[in-house]
Amino acid sequence: MMRLALDQARAAAARGETPVGAIVYRDGIVIASGANRREIDRDPTAHAEVLALREAGRVLNSWRLEECSMAVTLEPCPMCAGALVNARVKRLVYGAADPKMGAVDSLHRLCTDPRFNHRLEVRGGLLAEECGDLLRAFFKARRGNEKIPKPGAE
Amino acid sequence: MMRLALDQARAAAARGETPVGAIVYRDGIVIASGANRREIDRDPTAHAEVLALREAGRVLNSWRLEECSMAVTLEPCPMCAGALVNARVKRLVYGAADPKMGAVDSLHRLCTDPRFNHRLEVRGGLLAEECGDLLRAFFKARRGNEKIPKPGAE
């Protein structure tokens, strides 16, 4: 599933978006996918995870995604970590850690906060190097090309 | 602006959704509005705040809402607090505190975390009683009517 998330991340990079991709799956079957579309959609909430959760809700005809898991190439930010809790997602697997905005392990632990009405099983660091390399290559290429507007880190 | 947010919250209640409403405004002018649509849209991310931020991005043709403020009837949850940070919103005014999921003052302080790349000015408790009464009346009515599916607290 992380390989499919990486494909989504590469698709985002090809559009000039910060390369982050996400897959929602259940029982080994892909339910929904998302790739960062913040720039193209002019939407501050259009992170890969939010788009995948919204699509999964449409596919399953419910906002409760209780038996679903998510694979995402970058540690979710506060918005996305909170969305995973709200959607009652069972399990989260992420690739690279995000020391600047990561809200699952790095800066906050929103997915495992015992005070919330739902918690996720979390595994970080899956294919972390490959996921991180994609981000580093994207930002390095952008620094060499002033024509692409700077969106800030995902 | 909080009165307009309350109108949105009432509109949500009329559809059977947890009554939360949000307004995005700039220089005293309404840019966008949102009312909770989680049930009707089968969308775990369709909280009032996220919908208002997405609409504001479309209206202003940018995901950066740097000169914008938000008024919302309930203290934002982690997802919505994170979305406000991501959108670079300048100022947040909320009504009732949320001791169960509030991520601005109650359980976390995501909108003022100095480690993030953006922080908001925050004022809580505006028309708090009226905002809270609307929620309490909604949940009380729902407990008396088993026919309405239970969506859980916003």
Describe this entry's structure for a reader.
Two copies of one chain form a homodimer. Chain A is an alpha/beta fold and 154 residues long. Helices cover 36% and strands 18% of the residues of chain A. Chain A has five helices and five strands. Chain A has a five-stranded mixed β-sheet with strand order 2-1-3-4-5. In chain A, a hairpin with a 2-residue loop joins strand 1 and strand 2. In chain A, helix 1 runs parallel beside helix 5 (128-143).
Short recap of the structure:
2 copies of one chain form a homodimer. Chain A is an alpha/beta fold and 154 residues long. Chain A is 36% helix and 18% strand.
Number of helices, where a helix is a run of at least 4 consecutive DSSP H or I residues of chain A: 5
Number of DSSP E strands of chain A: 5
Chain pair with largest interface: A-B, 44 and 44 residues
Q: What percent of residues of chain A adopt helix (DSSP H or I)? A: 25-40%
